[in-house]
UniProtKB/TrEMBL annotation:
The chain crosses the membrane at residues 7-26, 46-67, 74-93, 113-131. This is Oxidoreductase. Keywords: Cell membrane, Membrane, Transmembrane, Transmembrane helix. Belongs to the DoxX family. It comes from Paraburkholderia tropica. Its main location: membrane. One of its GO terms (cellular component) is plasma membrane. Coiled coil: none annotated. It is a multi-pass membrane protein. The keyword Transport does not apply. The keyword Ribosomal protein does not apply. It is found in: Cell membrane.
Length: 143
């Protein structure tokens, strides 16, 4: 059981993590052709399948974060997603230009740090300020 202050902090963390993925998913959807081109340039296989899956993960994952739905499972999925996108999209070890390598390294470690935040949500759950929190049984006498 979490204290009200803990739930507020968990709620703020969920919102802050959701902003990044909501924005990213929306920009990918609005610039779909450019996103498809980017995936092709990265050598992603099955781009016509991968692109909608990525957008769905980002948009639906963001909504699940905001509302606190199935938080432990969603947070774990988003942690894995953040690491996979770090490895596939920010492979600084393959970049030869020093400035681009530095930028890719920053984005790689940013994704790894975001995965850490998601792993914390996997452990803590969504807190009381969530749909999960409303579904959770409360202590006390029932009668």
């Amino acid at each position: 059981m979490t204290r009200p202050a803990d739930s507020l902090i968990i709620f703020i963390a969920r919102i802050l993590l959701a902003i990044l993925f909501l924005w990213g998913g929306a920009m990918k959807l609005l610039g779909y052709a450019g996103f498809i081109g980017y995936l092709h340039s990265r050598g992603v296989p099955y781009v016509q399948v991968a692109a909608p899956v990525v957008i769905a993960v980002e948009l639906l994952g963001s909504l699940a974060l905001i509302f606190g739905v199935r938080m432990r499972a969603i947070a774990f999925l988003l942690a894995v997603y953040a690491v996979v996108t770090a490895v596939l999209g920010h492979d600084f070890w393959n970049v030869t230009n020093a400035a681009q390598q530095q930028e890719a390294a920053v984005h790689f470690w940013k994704n790894v740090a975001i995965a850490g935040g998601f792993l914390l949500l996997t452990v803590t759950g969504a807190g009381r300020a969530s749909i999960d929190g409303m579904r959770a049984p409360r202590g006390g006498l029932r009668g």
